[in-house]
Amino acid sequence: MAAIRILTGSVFGGALLTARRLRQELEADGHTVTVLEEPSVSDITDNEDALLVCTSTTGQGEVPPNLLPLYVDLREQLPQQPGRPFGIIVLGDSSYGDSFCGAGDLMEEALLETGASKQGETLRIDALETMEPEAEAVPWARAWASQL
Ligand SMILES: Cc1cc2nc3c(=O)[nH]c(=O)nc-3n(C[C@H](O)[C@H](O)[C@H](O)COP(=O)(O)O)c2cc1C
User: Fold this and answer.
1) Is 61 in the pocket of ligand 1 (CB under 6 A)?
2) Which amino acid residue places its CA nearest to atom 22 of ligand 1?
3) What is the Å distance from ligand 1's center to 80 Cα?
4) CATH code of 12's domain
5) What residues in the chain have per-residue pLDDT under 70?
6) What distance in angstroms lies between residue 130's CA and the mean position of ligand 1's atoms?
């Protein structure tokens, strides 16, 4: 069983509710899960948990304000995390075209620059397709966690 930190980014609460639901389900599977609503670099550097980004996209493909400080600090400080496993769940809306789910791509770039290791394909959840992001996120996250 794995120790997992969920790094949330959310404007209207959808990604945060999804993250909380993931905590419930992953804990039921026996994992240890922490949900971070205002994540900072020290939340990453003071432990070795696997990292699961669960964020929505705002602006034009941007990271939500509560996740932005971590994103900026990762890029500026480059805290080295060689081989640290991470996964990405990103909520977006395909009507935004090229910026669809852009926040997930930004977080992926920032984590890869630290030397962390992406596990699995990014899960992109389209608000045009579903009103229940957790219905897609839960099975994806259970499978992702089982590979850690
Ligand atoms: C002002 C605004 C800007 C948005 N910009 C994007 C975007 O650039 N790309 C995208 O894929 N989705 C975009 N979205 C859609 C949201 O990411 C999507 O509705 C998501 O489910 C919201 O999740 P949340 O409740 O956690 O904030 C935007 C939504 C709003 C309201």
Assistant:
1) yes
2) 56
3) 30
4) 3.40.50.360
5) none
6) 13
pLDDT tens sequence across 57-95:
999 999 999 999 999 999 999 999 999 999 999 999 999
Q: Which atom of ligand 1 is nearest to the CA of 61?
A: 8
Its ipTM equals: 0.99
| Listed residue (14, 18, 83) closest to 6, CA to CA | 18
pTM: 0.98
The residues facing 117 across adjacent strands are 85
Q: Which domain holds residue 96?
A: 3-146
Q: Which atom of ligand 1 is nearest to the CA of 16?
A: 26
Single out the residue of 110, 107, 8, 11 nearest to residue 55, CA to CA: 8
Number of domains within the chain: 1
